Model the fold of this input.
Amino acid sequence: MTEKQNYFGLVYQVVREIPKGRVTSYGAIAHYLGLKSGARMVGYAMNAAHTMPDVPAHRVVNRQGLLTGRHHFSTPTAMQEALEKEGVRVEKDQVQNFEQVFWNPETELTI
DNA sequence: CGCCTGACGTTGC
DNA sequence: AGCAACGCCAGGC
Done:
């Protein structure tokens, strides 16, 4: 598989399953993978995920629905524009209706 | 080989 | 209710 590292690949796998117009949180993925405090690790994996074309890191936000990692994208607005382009409204780097667009891997993911 | 930093989350004050 | 510190783990220097 292209995913050389296991837990990195796991994160990529889950993130790739995020449906268009939906977002999830680092902690949700971490908890889904069994990484208790791995939320940081998920974000760290996202940093490497930027090399993965099929990993929509822009659909992953923090627990508050804030686009904390937007600065890591090509442009500081790429993340927000990508989300808005998919139908997710973002205001001041914060996802609006976060509860509605939130995609829970443990509940909705059928892998 | 050891120290620092980092796309978070939770608990305590 | 808002702010601060801690915890966890891996990669980079």
